[in-house]
UniProtKB/TrEMBL annotation:
<feature type="transmembrane region" description="Helical">
    <location>
        <begin position="6"/>
        <end position="32"/>
    </location>
</feature>
<feature type="transmembrane region" description="Helical">
    <location>
        <begin position="305"/>
        <end position="328"/>
    </location>
</feature>
<feature type="transmembrane region" description="Helical">
    <location>
        <begin position="203"/>
        <end position="222"/>
    </location>
</feature>
<dbReference type="GO" id="GO:0009055">
    <property type="term" value="F:electron transfer activity"/>
</dbReference>
<keyword id="KW-0813">Transport</keyword>
<feature type="transmembrane region" description="Helical">
    <location>
        <begin position="228"/>
        <end position="248"/>
    </location>
</feature>
<feature type="transmembrane region" description="Helical">
    <location>
        <begin position="118"/>
        <end position="141"/>
    </location>
</feature>
<keyword id="KW-0349">Heme</keyword>
<protein>
    <submittedName>
        <fullName>Cytochrome d ubiquinol oxidase subunit II</fullName>
    </submittedName>
</protein>
<dbReference type="Pfam" id="PF02322">
    <property type="entry name" value="Cyt_bd_oxida_II"/>
</dbReference>
<dbReference type="GO" id="GO:0019646">
    <property type="term" value="P:aerobic electron transport chain"/>
</dbReference>
<keyword id="KW-0472">Membrane</keyword>
<keyword id="KW-0812">Transmembrane</keyword>
<keyword id="KW-1133">Transmembrane helix</keyword>
<feature type="transmembrane region" description="Helical">
    <location>
        <begin position="74"/>
        <end position="98"/>
    </location>
</feature>
<dbReference type="GO" id="GO:0005886">
    <property type="term" value="C:plasma membrane"/>
</dbReference>
<keyword id="KW-1003">Cell membrane</keyword>
Length: 342
């Protein structure tokens, strides 16, 4: 297998890791107004992800750095063309991170409510925009080659807000919301756990319906492509895992439900990457304008050096993250929140 293909897969794995791990962070943030009956409930919800949310976001940083180093043309074209959407994601992530750190400063209820709103909207906006972006990469965006080399994006933010793109955004939002609710039920006890399981049943049904519609649309769009079999297999695994997760949640098996949701997100994204392959960006202006993996990749020497670095560092990162989750594996309850906490 060529190193260009290897790094296409590595970037894909890093992005999958980000959406699986930071995905439940987003879901917990979205759940605040639905599960948080009072400030103590909201403190419990935030504390479920308190030790790990910033560690989960490092997957996005590593994925972005790998994309920049391995596929600079992809990085340049996508970040310049999607700059407004990516700026909104960045602002939302900053507001969410700041809110986790400052909402408990005890400046009064109005202060706390403002930061709770930042956490909520900072958790809603990124998955929606990420879903829209990935859906448009699969569908095709108006990019063309330029004489000086590289590609240029000729659309706007509104170009991305088409029916398929919006469906992708809604699908991603529901996936992470459902993922977060199951995580809350896995990490808490008592009434919060019961409310999270009950809400996950309802959200899970909507997620299955919307997810099925998005995957079927994706399959129909790429009928006849060289990777259609892989797309269908990945989509089928994602669908089965999502349904199995709903059944497990209904049966009170939160661990299995969480694992099922993680598999569903992973294989749904794999289906998207298989729909992209062997391109990085499909062009709606014609197949000849599409960005291929080989055309956007760095030099062979750069990819070789990056491969050695990844082989050494990635296992260490995975081991450290696994250790962190093990240390903070205990379930939380309202009784663990001090009465004076804000």
């Amino acid at each position: 297998m060529e190193l260009t293909t290897v790094w296409f897969l590595i970037v894909g794995v890093l992005l999958i890791g980000y959406f699986v791990l930071d995905g439940f962070d987003f879901g917990v943030g979205i759940s605040l107004p639905f599960l948080g009956k009072d400030d103590t409930d909201r403190r419990v919800l935030i504390n479920t992800i308190g030790p790990v949310w910033d560690l989960n976001e490092t997957w996005l940083i590593v994925a972005g750095a790998s994309l920049f180093a391995a596929f600079p043309e992809w990085y340049a074209t996508m970040f310049s063309g999607f700059y407004l959407a990516l700026l909104l994601i960045l602002v939302a992530l900053i507001l969410r991170g700041v809110s986790f750190e400052y909402r408990h400063q005890g400046k009064g209820q109005k202060w706390t409510r403002w930061f709770d709103q930042f956490i909520f909207w900072g958790s809603v906006l990124p998955p929606v925009l990420w879903g829209v972006a990935f859906a448009n990469l699969v569908q095709g965006v108006p990019i063309r080659t330029v004489e000086t080399g590289g590609w240029i994006y000729e659309g706007t933010l509104l170009t991305l807000l088409n029916p398929y793109g919006l469906l992708g955004g809604i699908c991603m939002l529901l996936l992470v919301f459902n993922h977060g609710l199951v995580f809350v039920s896995l990490k808490t006890v008592g009434e919060i756990r019961d409310r999270a399981r009950a809400l996950a049943k309802k959200v899970g049904i909507a997620t299955i319906v919307v997810g099925a519609a998005f995957l079927v649309w994706t399959i129909i769009m790429h009928m006849g492509s060289d990777t259609i079999l892989l797309i269908v297999v990945c989509a089928a695994i994602a669908a089965v895992a999502l349904i199995a997760a709903w059944v497990a949640n209904a049966a009170g098996r939160e661990g299995w439900a969480f694992a099922g949701n993680a598999v569903a997100i992973a294989f749904a994204l794999l289906a998207i990457f298989m729909a992209l392959f062997p391109n990085l960006m499909h062009s709606s202006l014609g197949a000849a304008e599409s960005m291929s993996i080989e055309g956007a990749a760095s030099s062979q020497k750069t990819l070789e050096l990056m491969t050695w670095v990844a082989a050494i560092c990635l296992p260490l990162v995975l081991a450290y993250q696994a250790w962190t989750y093990w240390i903070f594996r205990k379930r939380l309850s309202r009784e663990m929140i001090p009465a004076a906490a804000h």
